[in-house]
Design brief:
By secondary structure, this protein is an all-alpha fold. The protein contains eleven helices and no strands. It is about 65% helix and about 0% strand. It starts with 14 loop residues before the first helix and ends with a helix. The model has no long low-confidence stretch (mean pLDDT about 90). Bound molecules: fe (ii) ion (2 copies).
């Protein structure tokens, strides 16, 4: 159980306190490499938030929390993810993730809401959909999705591609990164989550031909 956090008066933990609590929790529930990845996503997301006029602490919290449940056993992840589907009202988007490797996103959103009392919808959305994205998701979620794929520890990411992406506003950043990962999965012949593939095709339709 998390330590009790000071509430600022609106029933939610202060983001600074939550970031500190998550930073100390992640070492106990994931391997060192994943903990380093989580901190790196948090740093990159915080920087992108600053650049785009969002609260960098929201980026830090979402980054630190996004893979929090990845090493939980399957049954625990699924229980949390199902609870998130009920709580959030986005059950349809979540249902395709249940039972697979991608349900750790909605599971972590549920953990933030149920154990820490977090109510910030933007952070919860960012954590829930960091693996696959969702149509119409907000700027913070777009940033966290991209930071997860672009953080400097991801050594297969081309440095020039990373740099060019980081200059983009969140919606274009998300579009570039999602398209890049779908193209890579197609090239490798790996399975692609159906919602991500649908967004990829919709983005390609919208994008003017060069
Ligand atoms: Fe993840
Ligand atoms: Fe991650």
């Amino acid at each position: 159980m998390p330590e009790l956090l000071e509430m600022p008066g609106n029933g939610q933990p202060a983001l600074q306190d939550l970031a500190v609590a998550l930073d100390s929790r992640i070492d106990g529930c994931m391997n060192r490499r994943r903990a380093a990845h989580s901190r790196s996503v948090a740093d990159l997301a915080a920087g992108l938030c600053l650049r785009n006029g969002l609260d960098p602490l929201a980026g830090s919290v979402a980054g630190l929390a996004h893979d929090l449940c990845k090493e939980f056993d399957r049954a625990m992840q699924e229980g949390l993810a199902r609870a998130w589907a009920q709580r959030s009202g986005v059950g349809q988007r979540i249902s395709s993730l249940l039972g697979g490797a991608l349900m750790h996103g909605p599971a972590a959103a549920e953990l933030l809401a149920s154990e820490y009392g977090l109510e910030d919808r933007d952070i919860l959305e960012a954590v829930a959909f960091h693996t696959v994205g969702a149509p119409g998701m907000g700027a913070l979620a777009q940033i966290v999705y991209a930071a997860d794929k672009l953080e400097p520890g991801r050594r297969h990411v081309d440095a020039a591609f990373r740099e060019s992406c980081l200059e983009l506003p969140p919606d274009e950043l998300f579009s570039e990164v999602l398209s890049d990962s779908v193209r890579w999965l197609l090239k490798e012949g790996l399975p692609i989550e159906e919602g991500s593939l649908a967004m990829y095709h919709a983005m390609r339709k919208r994008k003017p031909k060069p």
